[in-house]
Amino acid sequence: MPHAPASLENRTAVITGAAQGIGFAIAQTFVDAGARVVIGDLDVDAAVAAAEKLGGRDVARAVGANVVDSDDWDNLLSETVSWTGSLDVVVNNAGITRDATMRTMTEADFDLVIGVHLKGTWNGTRKASAIMRQAKRGAIVNISSLSGKVGMVGQTNYSAAKAGIVGLTKAAAKEMAHHGVRVNAIQPGLVRSAMTEAMPQKAWEQKMSEIPMARAGEVEEIASVALFLASDMSAYMTGAVLEVTGGRFM
């Protein structure tokens, strides 16, 4: 029997920032689809706990990694390949926010957000590509944001980084296409998480009023799109940016 097209059977995926939130939901969805998963996260203890929750050492491992550091990436990917012998999927999900208006934002908070999102995704994309091109196959999924499409007040750093991920994804997709490596991006809208639920009620209601489907997304709804892009179901897609937003700002 051939594998179902959405299967990740016998494939290995690295997901950054997967100790919680959208990243953890992606890891769970990938494990359910048959993948072995490596969680790369700055918070090693949280990553280890997440790997245990996913089923422990046979299906999930944790490796401490700061995505801004290219040596950390080398270590993360070499640990992965030495565990399973392959690197099939990389999801660049790690991210942070340091929201403030342009007038009050510090240069340090601008550099930090650009570093984690944009440089981190660049590191992950180039390091993964170098390994995947040898196998002549692989899928890279970069997590952008609706903020990178429309720009959000108080997020000049985050919006710039997330827009940059789109440009990076398209450029990398063109470079890697003839090597059999696909690079695509997801732009989530308002997704229910610990971070968004801490938002002031008024801000939440304002965002909800902009969503034609009249509800927030769930982390699993981002994860299923990541599975689509990681699997053979999207075999003829590269350089694509999929908005998962309930129709907000279409």
UniProtKB/TrEMBL annotation:
Gene3D superfamilies documented for this protein: NAD(P)-binding Rossmann-like Domain (3.40.50.720)
EC number(s) per entry: 1.1.1.100
Keyword flag Oxidoreductase: yes
Keyword annotations: Oxidoreductase
GO BP term, pick one: fatty acid elongation
Annotated Ketoreductase domain residues: 11-194
An annotated Gene Ontology molecular function: 3-oxoacyl-[acyl-carrier-protein] reductase (NADPH) activity
Origin superkingdom: Bacteria
Record carries keyword Iron-sulfur: no
Family (UniProt): Belongs to the short-chain dehydrogenases/reductases (SDR) family.
Protein name per the record: 3-oxoacyl-ACP reductase FabG
Organism name: Gordonia jinghuaiqii
